[in-house]
Amino acid sequence: MKLNPSLDAPALGEQYRRDGRISIPGILREKDARNLREAIEKEPRRNLVFHANGRHFDIDGAGWRELDAEKKRTTEQIIHTEARTGFSYAYENLPIYDRWRQKSELGEVLRSAVEFLNGKAFLGMMREVTGFDDIAFADAQATLYGPGHFLTVHDDAVVGKYRRAAYVLNLTEGWRQDWGGYLNFFDKDGNIEKAYKPAFNALNIFSVPSPHSVGLVAPFAGTLRCSITGWLRSGAPE
Fold first, then answer.
1. Model confidence over 105-115: pLDDT tens digits?
2. Which fold has domain 9-42+97-233?
């Protein structure tokens, strides 16, 4: 995997430091972005992650899909009750950075993606764009949002994680505005200040903390909202 050689890092850095966020189109070669999306969608060991009763749950995605309808409805009601007034989420993921660190089984394309995100070219560009010279690594998870999936408002600030910025590498082609799933940013009054469509091969970067959400994906969405997300962090990995 390689960065698009036509990117102008100094100009991107000026915009990022002015606005606290940026969307960079054409971040990769298109063939690399397509190969990456295909590898994520074909991976059988996907998890369903959700927040309910004040806890994070991480369960086998295939098992969830085989669960009977009544148990699914009960679980979804608990998730939605929490989302009504607080922080909650539901989506599928692949913890590709954790698997890479643990030397767990990981396909060649996904392994290459983690190595690219932690390579000299990508991290060097991220330091230049964000202005943080101490960015040491990029953690990563592949995420897939299907109909009914969402992530409510939060700001990514966690003590001891040393998150300098968050990023989203979008890998979905043909996403329609009506399907939801936008990355939303909010002002102090709760109004949407900016929203990024999950545009194919675009890299979104934003400062931490920044109140944001992933809007609910519509039940009629025609494909999965596929991306790699994570944080650009200083310090050492846990």
1. 889 999 999 99
2. Jelly Rolls (2.60.120)
